Amino acid sequence: EFRYGEYSTVTVVTPNGKVDFGKDSPLVVIAGPCSVENEEMIVETAQVVKAAGAKFLRGGAYKPRTSPYAFQGHGESALDLLAKAREVTGLGIITEVMDTADVDKIANVADILQVGARNMQNFSLLKKVGATGKPVLLKRGLSATIEEWLMAAEYILAAGNPNVILCERGIRSFDRQHTRNVLDLSVVPVLRTLTHLPITIDPSHATGKSQYVPTMTMGAIAAGTDSLMIEVHPNPAKALSDGPQSLKPQEFQELMLEVKPLAQFF
Ligand code: PEP
Ligand code: MN
After folding, report:
1. Which atom of ligand 1 is found nearest the CA of 140?
2. Lesser CB count within 10 Å: N end or C end of the chain?
3. Residue 264 counted as domain residue
4. Could you give the CA distance from residue 207 to residue 61 in angstroms, rounded to a whole number?
5. In this model, does residue 81 exceed pLDDT 70?
């Protein structure tokens, strides 16, 4: 039995108060670096994105990298840095959980638990994050159908946790020459017919190139997304992960100024 249509708004309690994702709520912007690299960069980025209008800081502590030799994230010490950035800015924190063994420790710091594209069908992880009752941002799998994605969400709902936000981050196609993935913006109107779960669009992982992020951000807003997740790095050229798709602080500020008249989020 499908149950994923029963819920509507996800409320996340942050140090700055409550933020509603979904129906009739202002656009929620989540921003920050792909990975938490050090204290200075995460605190600086947090301050910049907050001033520009973001309500949540993103930053990976545990990173799902294609190569085992690539930077894997600083783990637990990065969680402490995210807590520090929240203390300084009051922003809500979202970070990825990859392993059931880390769920409780991450849930102690994060306001939203992120389940990444590569773990969308990690059913033990879905059950475990469901059991925490914490808001969960569930990314669409690399090649997941909408049905598979919604049934993955259903695992979290079935565990008794109604606080699921669906995140479209681009799907795999045959052509990766000019974009990393294909941003499926049609999920916004399609999901509206299937579920009341709120939607986030991630134009950064979808395009893989910072130059395309502003246009796809505007497209996502036009399609009616509830939220956006955008990667921002103080020095993308030196980023330990996903530099090419990360906006510079000034680019993010400019984008938020463009977005502001279209979506009241201040
Ligand atoms: C991320 O958000 O940094 C990430 C790894 O995303 P995805 O799971 O969509 O690839
Ligand atoms: Mn990333």
Report:
1. 9
2. N
3. no
4. 22
5. yes
Pocket of ligand 1 (CB under 6 A): 34, 60, 64, 116-118, 139, 169, 205
Residue 1 scores a pLDDT above 60:
no
From the list 219, 207, 203, the residue with the least C-alpha distance to 252 is 203
Residue 4 covered by a domain: no
For residue 130, what are the domain limits?
A: 10-259
Kindly report the pTM of this predicted structure. Answer: 0.97
Question: Which atom of ligand 1 lies closest to the CA of 117?
Answer: 8
pLDDT confidence tier of residue 24, bands split at 50, 70 and 90: confident
* ipTM > 0.95 for the complex: yes
Question: For 88-127, how does the pLDDT look when each residue is reduced to its tens digit (9 = 90+)?
Answer: 999 999 999 999 999 999 999 999 999 999 999 999 999 9
- Of the pLDDT bands very low, low, confident and very high (cuts 50, 70, 90), residue 2 is low
> Phi and psi (nearest 5°) for 227?
-160, 165
Tally of domains in the chain: 1
- What residues does 31 pair with on adjacent strands? 57, 230
Ligand nearest to the CA of 206: 1
- CA of 32 from ligand 1 middle (Å) equals 12
CA of residue 56 to ligand 1 center, whole Å? 16
Task: Decide if 151 is inside a domain.
Answer: yes
Helices (H), the chain: 39-52, 76-89, 103-107, 123-132, 146-158, 187-194, 203-207, 213-223, 249-259
Q: Please state the atom number of ligand 1 nearest to the C-alpha of residue 119.
A: 8
- Is a pLDDT exceeding 80 seen at residue 4? no
Among residues 54, 53, 74, which one has the least CA distance to residue 63? Answer: 74
Cα(120) to centroid of ligand 1, in Å?
A: 11
Specify the CATH number for the domain of residue 250.
3.20.20.70
